[in-house]
């Protein structure tokens, strides 16, 4: 049963040099810089996103993810989810409106995997960059780099996938789209959605809590993913793997690293999901093909490098 969570809203990343990070996310990936605040945080968004921002960068001595947020239907829904989380035994911290520029009040909580998540209902809407909502053109002129369209999902590493799944399914209303299962019945990976997308968030079982594997942004087409690969080589940006295709979700992908070591993905295509669809299951011994459909094997970096 859906609980009013609509979609991924924003993610805040720690970066070790802000100017290098801006050059990466704005100039190379093509996100739009929309704001800065008194704490020195920088706000960006994809050009198709109507909200004020979807990515926040915070300078720090170590890379990684501070939190990921989901937007809910309205303030009444936010209040209901607050009650549901507390009834489920989750400690919730209320963050006042304005702590993030242009964003309303937020509810913050920690999942059993150790990751911090937020829910919010209100954020300033600045519209689709360069085209607006009235007789819009196909795309805005002057876009840079990869021309990333929107924040798509995060893949997170943590230890307690089972209780995290129950929290997301029972309290937040997410569906399980795909999973990777070991022979002993342990779920090794879970791909969850609250929409018709292949996934809005995913988790892989890992011994440490609160680790970021990657943040993913949507591109328009496979051709744009190939162009992203060209741009990564032109700028001597560290590539993890790709361009290639996933088995899970069937999307086309390339993985690479920002200057601080946070892994990024740009992604196109992918399956659609409806609530009556049963989860797709992959066997753990087919994980190489599930992740990298063409190579059919995982590289060591992909398995071990997290922030």
Automatic annotation (TrEMBL):
Keywords: Aromatic hydrocarbons catabolism, Dioxygenase, Iron, Metal-binding, Oxidoreductase, Repeat. InterPro entries: Catechol_2-3_dOase, Fosfomycin_Res_Enzymes, Glyas_Bleomycin-R_OHBP_Dase, Glyas_Fos-R_dOase_dom, VOC_core, Xdiol_ring_cleave_dOase_1/2, XylE-like_N. Residues 7-122, 150-269 form the VOC domain. Coiled coil: none annotated. It comes from the Bacteria. It catalyses: catechol + O2 = (2Z,4E)-2-hydroxy-6-oxohexa-2,4-dienoate + H(+). Its EC number is 1.13.11.2. Its cofactor is Fe(2+). It is an enzyme of class 1 (oxidoreductase). Pfam families: Diox-like_N, Glyoxalase. GO terms for molecular function: catechol 2,3-dioxygenase activity; ferrous iron binding. Homotetramer. Belongs to the extradiol ring-cleavage dioxygenase family. This is Metapyrocatechase. It comes from Aeromonas simiae. The lineage of its organism: Bacteria, Pseudomonadati, Pseudomonadota, Gammaproteobacteria, Aeromonadales.
């Amino acid at each position: 049963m859906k609980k009013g969570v609509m979609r991924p809203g924003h993610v805040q990343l720690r970066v070790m040099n802000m100017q290098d990070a801006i050059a990466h996310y704005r100039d190379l990936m093509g996100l739009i810089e929309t704001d800065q605040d008194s704490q020195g945080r920088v706000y960006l968004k994809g050009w198709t996103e109507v909200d004020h921002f979807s990515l926040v960068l915070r300078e720090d001595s170590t890379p990684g993810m501070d939190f990921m947020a989901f937007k809910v239907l309205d303030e009444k829904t936010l209040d209901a989810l607050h009650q549901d989380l507390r009834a489920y035994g989750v400690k919730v911290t209320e963050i006042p409106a304005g702590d993030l520029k242009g964003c309303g009040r937020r509810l913050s909580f920690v999942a059993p995997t150790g990751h911090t998540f937020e829910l919010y209902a209100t954020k300033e809407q600045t519209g689709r960059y360069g085209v607006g909502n009235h007789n819009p053109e196909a795309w805005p002129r002057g876009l840079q780099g990869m021309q990333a369209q929107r924040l798509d999902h995060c893949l997170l590493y943590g230890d307690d996938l089972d209780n995290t799944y129950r929290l997301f399914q029972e309290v937040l209303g997410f569906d399980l789209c795909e999973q990777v299962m070991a022979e002993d019945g342990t779920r090794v990976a879970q791909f969850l959605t609250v929409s018709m997308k292949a996934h809005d968030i995913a988790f892989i079982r890992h011994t440490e809590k609160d680790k970021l594997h990657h943040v993913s942004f949507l591109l328009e087409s496979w051709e744009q993913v190939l162009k992203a690969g060209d741009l990564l080589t032109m700028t001597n940006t560290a590539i993890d793997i790709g361009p290639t295709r996933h088995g899970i979700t069937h999307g086309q992908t390339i993985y690479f690293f920002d200057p601080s070591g946070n892994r990024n993905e740009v992604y196109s295509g992918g399956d659609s999901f409806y609530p009556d669809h049963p989860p797709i299951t992959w066997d753990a011994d087919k994980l190489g093909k599930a992740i990298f459909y063409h190579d059919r094997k995982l590289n060591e970096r992909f398995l071990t490098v997290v922030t």
